[in-house]
């Protein structure tokens, strides 16, 4: 169950990065809503991470959490914000995924 909580926490980290990206171009009420989404995502993400590390080792949980957030943010950047999907970016995202899996297995 703690691994599921950790994955959800990582997805919330991706959510707050997405909201931050949307805040860059939003104005007025839309900016305030994206800001509220950012704050809620940060709070939920940190809370879920703190729940997960009650039983999972912090040395594994934190890198998994940040890895999910980083990979999710890169993918959302390419899909939603039209960021470049170069070979190098995709290679290093794959390397990050393999590294996090390796850390979990070690």
Automatic annotation (TrEMBL):
Q: Which GO terms describe its molecular function?
A: transmembrane transporter activity
What membrane topology was assigned to this protein in its record? Multi-pass membrane protein
Show the Pfam families listed in the entry.
Multi_Drug_Res (PF00893)
The record's subcellular location field reads: Cell membrane
Record field: transmembrane: 33-53, 60-79, 85-103
UniProt-listed GO biological process terms:
xenobiotic detoxification by transmembrane export across the plasma membrane
GO cellular component, alphabetical, reads: plasma membrane
What keywords sit in the KW lines?
Answer: Cell membrane, Membrane, Transmembrane, Transmembrane helix, Transport
Where does this protein chiefly localize? membrane
Record flagged with keyword Membrane: yes
Q: Which family does it belong to?
A: Belongs to the drug/metabolite transporter (DMT) superfamily. Small multidrug resistance (SMR) (TC 2.A.7.1) family. Gdx/SugE subfamily.
Official protein name in the record:
Guanidinium exporter
Q: Which organism is it from?
A: Candidatus Tidjanibacter faecipullorum
């Amino acid at each position: 169950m703690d691994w599921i909580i950790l994955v959800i926490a990582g997805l919330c980290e991706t959510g707050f990065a997405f909201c931050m990206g949307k805040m860059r171009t939003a104005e007025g009420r839309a900016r305030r809503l994206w800001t509220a989404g950012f704050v809620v995502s940060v709070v939920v993400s940190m809370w879920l991470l703190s729940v997960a590390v009650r039983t999972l080792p912090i040395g594994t949980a934190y890198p998994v959490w940040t890895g999910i957030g980083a990979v999710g943010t890169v993918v959302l950047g390419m899909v939603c914000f039209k960021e470049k999907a170069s070979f190098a970016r995709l290679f290093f995202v794959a390397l990050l995924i393999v590294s996090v899996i390796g850390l979990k297995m070690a």
